[in-house]
Amino acid sequence: MAQVLIRNLDDELVDAYRQAAKREGRSLEAQLREALWVMQPLTRKRVAQLRAQADRIRARAPDVPQTPSEQLIREDRDGYRDA
After folding, report:
1. Where are the alpha helices (DSSP H) in the chain?
2. Other Cβ atoms within 10 Å of 27 Cβ, number
3. What pTM value is reported for the model?
4. How many domains is the chain partitioned into structurally?
5. pLDDT at position 35, please?
6. What residues make up the domain containing 35?
């Protein structure tokens, strides 16, 4: 596995990650590794992985109609609630 050394990080930034690591019960290194994983750039390979994951999720309920995301966003923005 590769290693990376990042110099001249802001002390407040490192402290924020250190506090988050403590809350999560893991090391600073593990917290930073997770942050890099979550925020990784979208490569073609990663896009393909995400599409495959979405296909697997959709396949779990093939007969359930899917609501378009833009509709859900619009309803949330406009305060729509189906009670």
Report:
1. 11-24, 28-38, 44-59, 69-77
2. 12
3. 0.59
4. 1
5. 97
6. 11-61
